[in-house]
Amino acid sequence: MTEMRHPLSTYRLQIRESFTLDQAAEVTDYLRDLGVSWAYLSPILEATPGSDHGYDVVDVTRVDPARGGAAGLDRFAAAARAEGLGILIDIVPNHMGVSEPRTNAWWWDVLRQGRASAHATAFDIDWEFGGGKVRVPVLGDHLDAVIDEISYDPAPAADAPDGLIRYYDHVFPVAPGTGTDAAASGSRDAIRALLDAQNFELRFWQDEAADLNYRRFFAVTTLAGVRVELPEVFEATHAEILRWVREGLADGLRVDHPDGLVDPGGYLDRLAASLAEASDSEVGYVLGEKILEHGEALPSWWKTAGTTGYDALAEIDRVLTDPAGEAALDALDARLRAGSDLPALTGWHDLIHDTKRKIADSIQVSEIRRIVRGLPAPLREEFEAEVLQDALAEILACFPVYRSYLPAGRAHLDAAAGEAEVRRPELGDVIEKLVPALADTDLEIAWRFQQTTGPVMAKGVEDTAFYRYTRLGSLTEVGGDPGQFALDVAGFHSAQAARHASWPLAMTTLSTHDTKRGEDTRARIAVLAEMPERWAARLEQFQGIASTGHGPFDALLWQAIIGAWPASASTPEGLKVYRERLHAYAEKAAREASEVTGWWEQDEAFEERMHAVVDAATGPAAERVRAFVDEISAAGWSNGLSAKLIQIVGAGVPDVYQGSELWEQSLVDPDNRRAVDFVERRRLLAEIDAAGAATPEVDATGAAKLLVTSRALRVRRDHPLEVYRALEAAGVASDHVVAFDRGGVSAVATRLPWGLAERGGWRDTVLLLPETPVTDVFTGRTYPGGPTALSDLLATYPVALLVS
């Protein structure tokens, strides 16, 4: 086995119909000039028509024609190779898209032929529970209420020789030999008889929560779980992917959501073996999109280079957050809750228990009931199904991490059971008897339970609690623990040293297609921790202009408004576009929080007030909002530059999410998948490169961030970063700098810039460097080494990158 080839850095490109593989090929020279090592592509297998993200794969056998097809991948690979770039591709083994059944030949055949389909075992379906049918929740009401809206089209088609069943835009195949003239006439009785004869059952869409019989991705009914644990399914779903590796079209893979699989470690073992067979000379570079809870370690036996970097994101954000602001922001949050007649928060842990329990009692009921049905008979005989469901939901709500990997992680199950017994002592007996079954890997339900803890965590924490815990929005980010407010410099260095020692090839990130806020939106919001009293006063003024009547949500929304406020909002058209983005964000945030309004049932009065806040902030109050943005922007830019430098030069393999070489002020998806202006970025980079000693200002253009990003990527490409050593500062402002040496390359970054200015700047503070001359690649200035005044070193930028 030869040594694995790996990237020094990556650049994520979102491949879609509006930005195809051929268009991606056109920017490969720009990526080379930027200093990138590998191009990193979003999923490229054929997805649901119109899909902007590609995670709803419908055909595992070919590259999506809408994204450029196989020929487009060939051309992209050729362009990337010509520029010396490696290629990393995102793959989706856990699920397939089924929102438009006719576009997914496997799912279509299962609907048509049921258990007789050659693809019936590919999907994780509980056929017995469905009475031999797949339950499909698409109806606007219960069947009796909408049966007149369902029709039978007897015209044969290549994929439906017995005709089609239609319900508005939904189309389904008719089972062999079940089409009738009576059904074609449209009579209610004949339509019902036709439906009864099918291998699927049309259900009210709200039945998806409790009565489905196929595993989903989280709670997304249109994404059906795939059984890649079966060798024949693995081979069928990975043949095209392995072709990419075999033919030199891909050097590595990013595995989406491995926690959804029956056995993530086993899957990675099989993938590694398959990659070794497919590659003549090198073992593939594989990353797992795994979210680690604070303090949790990645399974050491996994055959992966590491995670996709949310853990690094959390550490970088927190070292740039002022711990002194925590108490004041907690007090502000308490006042906002009291003013909204909301119960006081007892803490992050209790909040997420309740939100996870809410998910377990609602949109994950189908999965929990399936576990109940699979429990050993003695348990089902001793306890009623409702009691077993209640106890399982409580254990899930108490589970401390995304999942366990039995036999590893048994302690997590025991801890969850112990907490569940404390919270629900009346369930103690059933919980005690459930745990041995849930820990017994000879039982299918033990694996199913492990597949269910992740969805409960993700939906309960990231997609609910993150929108309720609003004291500082920059901390409610994927992979982060908002209960951990800040990280001191020593703690940050310890985390970096551990990453360098244990997972040096793991990816690090600051922005992705899944982040709740772009990196520079968070960087600006983080400034509020340095000025909590000032922020509290300004928020009160903003609430006086417009309020939802829900204090904590007001805080969340106003933080988003100021954090993402773009330079383009200085023009009427730019302000209009921003207003539309904010309306979409506000609606998603409020419905995800599901405190006052929600996806299933909306509170129209609240949502009117919510949208009125956005209209006010971008209308009559725009100048007042802009004035506050102007007040904190410089500190936000400082945080943004520091975060980028730390990420790129720090331990791990840094990814630059598309477009984030300039200010990345997105909000939650789909806002973070907006089109990127590569023409402008190419122009700016050429100007910076041609300027020589001239340095761009730190301003709204983002040119300074492009300078920092490109120079840091180039240094990383050209210099082996073989060590990680913390550098020390001395003086009155020494706690305002994060600095480290990577072996002849040193990164120096400002932290807590607002407080630094309030304290009078760097004054006598020096960075203790070796007695070796160094040059700052951002400014071209040379320093003799030894104790170096930070007031001099950081006179132009809040960051420096020193090369011996």
The value of Rg in angstroms is 27 Å
Structural class by sheet pairing and helices: alpha/beta
How far the N terminus sits from the C terminus, by CA atoms, comes to: 36 Å
CATH structural class of the domain at 10-94 and 228-308 = Alpha Beta
- CATH homologous superfamily heading of the domain at 10-94 and 228-308: Glycosidases
Number of strands: 27
Provide the β-strand percentage band: 5-15%
* Portion of residues within helices: 40-55%
Largest sheet: 8 strands, parallel
Give me the side-by-side strand order of the main sheet. Answer: 16-15-14-5-2-1-18-17
**What general form does the structure show?**
globular
Q: Fill in the CATH topology of the domain at 10-94 and 228-308.
A: TIM Barrel
Q: Please, what is the average pLDDT?
A: 96
Total number of helices? 29
CATH-defined architecture of the domain at 10-94 and 228-308:
Alpha-Beta Barrel
Provide the low-confidence segments as ranges. none
Domain Glycosyl hydrolase family 13 catalytic: 17-438
InterPro entries: GH (IPR017853), GH13_cat_dom (IPR006047), Maltooligo_trehalose_synth_4 (IPR013797), Trehalose_TreY (IPR012767)
EC number: 5.4.99.15
Pfam families: Alpha-amylase
